[in-house]
Hints:
Layout: H1 2-9, H2 20-27, H3 29-32, H4 36-43, H5 57-87, H6 99-108, H7 114-123, H8 127-152
Amino acid sequence: MAGVALALLTPARPIEGLRVLEELEEGTASLRQLPGPALFAFANAGVELGDSSLSDGDAQRVALTIVVGLVVGKFVEIAGATFLAPKLRLGTLPNGVDTRGLLGAAALAGIGFTVSLFITPLAYPDPPLLEEAKIGILGGAVIAAIIGIAVLGPGGPSDSPEQVR
């Protein structure tokens, strides 16, 4: 909440030669790299992993569907739209965007689980399905992270930049 208040009060243009926004951005760069929001969401997810986890057939389908949606769905949606937009003349990609970076970023999009965890109770008010949905969200985030790291990390597919056209 403090970040939202700070963002609302920070001037976007320099004031008397002082670049407040840029200085604030540079000063908080190390804080933005901390996994605070993700750890907060994970700690407050309230998922109990035990013998009964994913024992019900309906719960298994819910979890698997969520994993596929996060890992495959987000990847296909982002990569597909990004490859298609220039071909349909709907936009251009920034200079330096290569296929590896684009595919890695599309894979990493499946990590975004914070909002998913907070809205899941609206979609699954039944407690057993809610728990399994949360397991699916966390599992999908882990799988998406592994795929993204494999694509973007050293030794990932094609270390030579190939421009997306």
